[in-house]
UniProtKB/TrEMBL annotation:
GO terms for molecular function: copper ion binding; oxidoreductase activity. Residues 34-119, 132-275 form the Plastocyanin-like domain. Coiled coil: none annotated. Keywords: Signal. It comes from Sesamum angustifolium. PANTHER family: MULTI-COPPER OXIDASE, OS01G0816700 PROTEIN. InterPro entries: Cu-oxidase-like_N, Cu-oxidase_2nd, Cu-oxidase_fam, Cupredoxin, CuRO_2_AO-like. Residues 1-23 form the signal peptide. The keyword Transcription regulation does not apply. Belongs to the multicopper oxidase family. This is L-ascorbate oxidase. It comes from the Eukaryota.
Amino acid sequence: MVFNTKMIFALLFLCFSATCVFAGDPTLEFEWKVTYGTIAPLGVPQQGILINGQFPGPAINCTSNNNIVVNVFNQLDEPLLLTWAGIQQRKNSWQDGTPGAMCPILPGKNYTYRFQVHSRPLIPVPFDNPAEEYPVLLGDWYNKGHKSLKNILDSGRSIGRPDGIQINGQSSKVGDANAKPLFTFEAGKTYRFRVCNVGLRLSVNLRVQGHTMKVVEVEGSHTVQNVYDSLDLHVGQCMSVLVTADQTPKDYYFVASSRFAQHPLSTVAVIRYANGNGAASPELPPPPPENTKGIAWSISQFRSFRWNLTASAARPNPQGSYKYGKINITRTIKLVNSVFLQWQAQIWHQRCVTCGRRDPIEVGRVLRCG
């Protein structure tokens, strides 16, 4: 099936924990209506895409081995796909929701996604249950609507630099008296932030004023629990951090700032302690270095993330992946992506290899594309 219209993506958070596998795993069913609506993440009204009238869309709170059924009604005037970040679609790629893996939902039509969340036996969570979990969707944002950005790319031009940074669909400045708290703390309790960079271009650094962050999970795998003052989060990357409310009860800022950008961007969100007294300090925690030193700093930090081998390590399996650490490396392959013009549009590729954006992967395999 051939479509010329660029697909729309909705990044959806699936919050999950571990449990045992039973024959009758629970099924959670949802009905989502996707429509247009007016949004203003940076204070400028623009057309956005809503799910059941919400932006950001609704969260699915589920547990490992739950069966998820989502009936999506496309009430837009263009094709739509939803992609499920972090869910391993084993032998189920036609539910993955990426262009090339499946065809889009046409305007006025509906499609029912069916998949299971991380089918696996019990894996104990290697930390105490937090007082509360906060999903955080942050990233760069453009005041141009998605249709305008699509037209720019399809004309072969660059979409340029973003207009700002948003956190959960909002953006605030330091000292904004009208800013409402996005997160609330109680002194002495620990909170889990599930953070994803859902932007288009920029890596983002996040900091919590006056507090440290303990990384406990990256991309769905538990990690060795190291503590950081600031964290780089690259486009499409997700991680979980624990923050303990161990400071004087008052307001503090959750800070998100751009990385490696010629024109730096930043925003803040208010964290409010219960029964706290006092506004957040205007002095924000400093960002990490930029330029060449900043790149080295970011790479070094990423290399510090280590798999927690006592909690989420590979188990013996038919593929033998648990033996990979014993195999000597004899060849290293570097993958580099870049952009070029094709079909008069901006096309991204790896080593000059790309597959026709109009052809689903299964068709591409038959046609020996790429």
